[in-house]
Amino acid sequence: MSVLVMKNVSVTLGGTSILDDVSLHVGQGEFVSILGPSGAGKSTIFRLLTGAVEHDSGQITCNGQPLTAKQQSFAFMPQRDALMPWRRIIDNLTLGLEVQGISREEARARVTPLLADFGLEDFARHYPAQLSGGMRQRAALLRTVVQDRPVLLLDEPFGALDALTRTQMQAWFEKRWRAARWTTLLVTHDVREAVALSDRIFVLSRRPAHVLTEVQVPGPRPRLGRRITPEAHALEAQVLDILLNQTGKAL
Ligand SMILES: Nc1ncnc2c1ncn2[C@@H]1O[C@H](COP(=O)(O)OP(=O)(O)OP(=O)(O)O)[C@@H](O)[C@H]1O
Question: ipTM, 2 decimals?
């Protein structure tokens, strides 16, 4: 059964058509990515799902229920880690839960057992500026995951990292995901990342965005580094061609 369904959704902002008849779905425990050219409207989909913008037409449901502003269906991780510099890591990690009305003690009790898995057990009392970029992203991810919502929305979570750290983080996250099977929707413009991490990929056109194609990613996991299969390589090339074609049209 699909947890998240967007059906024929269109969005206009300031008189400009941004999303045009977008349909996509994410199943329970599935990892789905949205790929598209820069400015296509990928982040707009997340703004829509988090209630920051409204759709003109179409339907959005979570677990079969129409999305409402009150419903807390999604745990959202923005592009930048958005950790508060004046709060210790432990207090940043509990923030999402505290906003939900959970006491600080209860929030800490939920976060603490996860610290080791996220490589943060020795850094709970540090401030964000004392952590590396990769560690901050792991903290932001932990803060998102611990909210225990039906769907994780990840907006280019590794985009700001250097290439080596990004590869390490992708491998680390993929391993965590295989163990936890969080229902995940990832926005990225990194074709390799989408192929390495996803079960399925929706490729968007340039703005106004519509779904150009939906691809099922073949082959066993993990698909990172030297383990990349010929099928995954071929898919990368195919998806890249589709995207370059879109960018070419935009130039
Ligand atoms: N309030 C607004 N009024 C008009 N246009 C807007 C508004 N907000 C966003 N846009 C436009 O919507 C388009 C889609 O933006 P969005 O951030 O969703 O794209 P994106 O695919 O996530 O881009 P990137 O990959 O570069 O992050 C952009 O061209 C942007 O200029």
Answer: 0.93
